[in-house]
Amino acid sequence: MNDKKHINIIARENGARMETRVLEEKVQAAVADGYRRLNIDAFGQHGIGGRLYKAGDDPVTIRITGHPGQRVGAMGFPNTDIRIFGPASDDVGWLNAGAHICVHGHAGNGVANAMAQGKIYIEGNIGARGMTMTKHNPRFDPPELWVLGGAGDYFGEFMAGGVAVICGYDAQNPDNVLGYRPLVGMVGGRVFVRGAYHGYSDTDAIKIPIDDDAYDWLNENLKIFLARIGRDELFSDLAERDAWTLIRARTPMEKKGRPLRTMTDFRHQVWDRELGDGGLVGDLTDIDRRPIPLVPTGELRRFVPVWENRQYAAPCEATCPTGIPVQERWRLIREGRIDEAVDLALSYTPFPAAVCGYLCPGPCMTACTKQTALIEPVDVSLLGKASIHATGPEIPPTGETRIAVIGGGPAGLSVAWQLRLKGHDVVVHDTASRLGGKISSAIPSLRIPEEIIDTELARIRDVIPHVQLEQPINADMFNEIRSSVDYTVIAVGAGKPRTLPIPGRERLVPALDFLSQAKTGRAAVGRRVVIIGAGNVGCDVAAVAHQLGAEDITLIDIQAPASFGKERAEAEKVGAKFKWPCFTKEITDAGVVLTSGEVIPADTVFVSIGDAPEIGFLPDDIQTEAGFVGTDPHGRTSAPDVFAIGDVVKPGLLTDAIGAGRRAADAIDDIIAGKRPAGRLRPVIDTRRVTLEYFDPRITEYSDADHCSSQCSSCGTCRDCGICVSLCPQAAISRNVIQTDDFEYIVDADRCIGCGFCAAVCPCGIWNLVENNPLT
Amino acid sequence: MPSNRKITPSTLSVTDLPWQILWDKDRCTLCGQCTAVCPVQAIEPAVFRKRIVNTVLNVTADISDAHTVYYGIRQKTDPAYRCVGCATCQMVCPNDAIKPARGDDFDKLRFHMNRGGQPRRRGGRRNVPGSLLDRIKFIRISMLTDPALDAGRHEFELRTLLGRVLPPEQNLAFLRENGWIPPVREIYPLIIGGMSFGALSPNMWEGLQLGIAYLNEELNMPVRISTGEGGCPPRLLRSRFLKYVILQVASGYFGWDEIIHALPDMKEDPCAIEIKYGQGAKPGDGGLLMWHKVNQLIAAIRGVPPGINLPSPPTHQTKYSIEESVAKMIQSMYMATGFRVPVYPKISATSTAMAVLNNLTRNDYAAGLAIDGEDGGTGAAYHVSMNHMGHPIASNIRDAYLTLVAVGKQNEIPIFAGGGIGKTGNLAANAAALIMLGASGIQIGKYVMQAAAGCVGSENDRCNICNLGLCPKGITSQDPRLYRRLDVDDVAQRVVDLFLSFDTELKKIVAPLGRSTALPIGMSDALGIDDRHAADRLQIQYVV
Question: Please, what are the domains in chain B?
Fold first, then answer.
């Protein structure tokens, strides 16, 4: 070095401070001129000693006396060695790219900021933000900062490489040689510290043990540092291994957030400890509040399927006034138990063939669920006709209760039949010579073969042996009968034809009279017939009149005719004309004179505007309403021992009369047993529960009972098809055999999630998805 | 429901509904999870008929016509079972076979949400997406003009004051005369607003409280939470955590006898007492907790028998004027806690808010004013109240602040803004905008439900069935089968996450403004908006 040219530069001109630019020009010019040793007497000029690349690889030494300004050695090159004999201002070695800078004194803020190569030696303390933003470019050795004393605040922020060594010797703050909040954002490099410090950014940096390699490096370079600053005597003190701490940047993998307590630990250790077991509301409830999944099973299901077999009546059963469970009969047929299907009806009606097979308009079929989707209902008349062969039920012995039934028509025979089957002693009284009421006496044989009626009546006589025929009923007789029994049922029907209060009314032939005479071959009719009242009875009259030779048949009514079904069809078939509105003024030998003046020619004029009960025999304690007997829903009259059923209560279909008989029998049986009459009706099923998609909508007629039974949706009664078992996604449903001939479907609550597939797919609407019981 | 049926005026098709279920037959495994989980039973398993017809022209050949069925999922169209778009079905579907989609036509359901003459009620908030607050920009960036702060590196002390800050001479006079000055709390400027125990499920409520306790005790963030008006669990009242709680009293006065009974046992004073006069979601209307939601637990906390209706009338029954409300209620509530706890009213934003504020300026006890804007949420309200009643928060806060400036008390009575802050997710930006418009702090509710518990409700009328107690996330339900879907610890952790991230974002906003230790309350020179009218109204800069 001594052989290099050297130059002294005094950074003052005429006693005044030389501008930084001018000094820089002088320095650069000197280096360009081959000077390799520059002694600068500084006077606050900035950036002295940087960028001396014009020397090529030649070492250049800068010795600074006086007072250098900021950024000594900024952008220094590796060939440059700078020595400051005294303290230095801010930003020593800023962006240093290789210079060795030695400060024989303290240095200000920002020492080594953004330094990438080179070494900085400080003989005293440094200010704030030392060693910040330093880099280590792998092409070069890492930069080093050596500080004999301590560092100021915010040391090492965003330090990204290099080595800092803080010796803590005679530090400005011996209690904290690293200053306030050091190493925030540090991502690279390492820091040796000797002395006390108050933490560093734990998220960015980590303290590591000083291994032998690290110590050897420290030892070796400490000697160099001390030699450079001329403090070799400190070596033995400073080299003491145990006094040193080594901190390095955490790797990206090691980076961690603030070391936080887990929430669960906080809840256990802090929250619950302050509040008590169970936390916030542990004192108010012991309900389990632990987390559950979205689709739980068991008691945590929101919905639960319930197998409601036979809880609801099918619409057919519910609509049948007699209450026959039609769907049960189809079930028996599906199960091959045809005889039972046929016999079943006898539990409900003594006239399963006559009524269900022939005479009933079939409300059950009208109500059939399949009608809601415009699918043909199954044909119950097939089953009805087959019932002619039904075997009568077993007849229990009679008890002590005696019941008289006044009237042997459909209502009277129904109640008597049911009471006898329940083991009561029944006597039927009728004014006619033959049982059956209107079935025997008034319904044309066109509509039903006589042998059907005979067969069913014979079956009835087997069940009800006590029958008093041709017994006129008057007040005395009624009282006598009533007083001889425990209960009396009035089922005398409506036998008194209504007529019209008009001139010539004596010429009117009551429909009922005509029909019953026709049944016994005693009726005659003219060629031209007018029937006043175009209901179903009028239609029967028309058909029978045609049979007896009438040719020109007219039915008139004051309003659109109420007739329907087979009766209407029969009348239309024989060419009967329907005419309305027609108001009859009088009957003459010419025919029917209307109020309009029109005359409808007639040889015979029938009146069929309904019939009224003949109830003159009733005692005062039985109340009547508008000519009919008043009852409660069970058929009980105002007299507790007297019931009334059938047309004497309210005009209706045969099945209405039969149903009323059955309900009255149930009530009487309940009363005898000391119970309140309960009624036996099940609620009707919501047809939306029934799945009709399984049925072919294009079927228009059924070939036989088997076909019918296969197409019955069995509303409310399980078909035992097992579709629910197949569809259940959880395999939670199984079929359980109860004893030998019954079964149930059960749900494993621990598997069921309450999805509702069972309820949705059930053809019969058995499964119901209900809300689970509230948990509180 | 048969497809061919009698219809009524309210018979709707799927197209008429706002949310339509898209179900993919090919992907469906018929696992039943979607129907099991649907909160409103909008979907059901179903049997579908399939007809397969093979025809040929040759009449002698066999023509086959077979009916078969397949199984799947069907959407109900009865308004009572309408799909609410919550997408819980999609969440449980293992095969991505089902999801709700918004219909592309103007829905017809809205005309039929009044069966029996009962107008629509719902939860959520005003069904109007978007927010003016999002349009406010922070235009004053302190490039070299102020100390350059680094949000990630600098230390911040973002706190606000809740309480009456009297001028020094007045405070000294107070102290001299009374031996007392109004209490003031230094708290975090983001507050969890009042959501009652009852409106929220027990797990949600405890999760929020637990998170708040954690923020205070583990992270040294003095965050506060209002109880809402459903009372406060007795254990909380008697714990040190009460310090973090703002007790709310409202027109229903639920649970207040329990609070009074707890006074002798309180280890800590509550942070403050909030007197609720109004709610932004349903200004001028009250509420009713239906009897079936009043289970044992809620009843115990509210101090009522279970199974009865709990009405919160629109007004306090014995308060007839501002003067009375302010003087009487504030004084009474101060007395309850020995004058150690700040007491302030909360009102819904309204064009008459200045009258209330003026009154408060003359009452040295008034600790602040909370104003809840039109975008506030609620567990149940009439749709018409929610959608059409109320005042936007920005101009109301601005007017209030400028009113205080006019009377020289802008540093004395803190104003707290609530209602739709963070509605579109921009919580910190919205909060900072309101602070710079003049708010001392921000109350959030719905945002917490969304961020901390996964509420799926939206201003596009998604879900919004809080009122039914059928919350698919278990946030607003009292049914353990639903609220056990919510893990208390998870909610608490999310509360912590949301506050930490808010804190960072707030720093990212205020640091470039050169603020690190004082909240920039009323620093409206930092605000700009690209709407001339809004700029004029808010007295901030118009920038394009």
Answer: 14-109 (3.30.70.20), 132-542 (3.20.20.70)
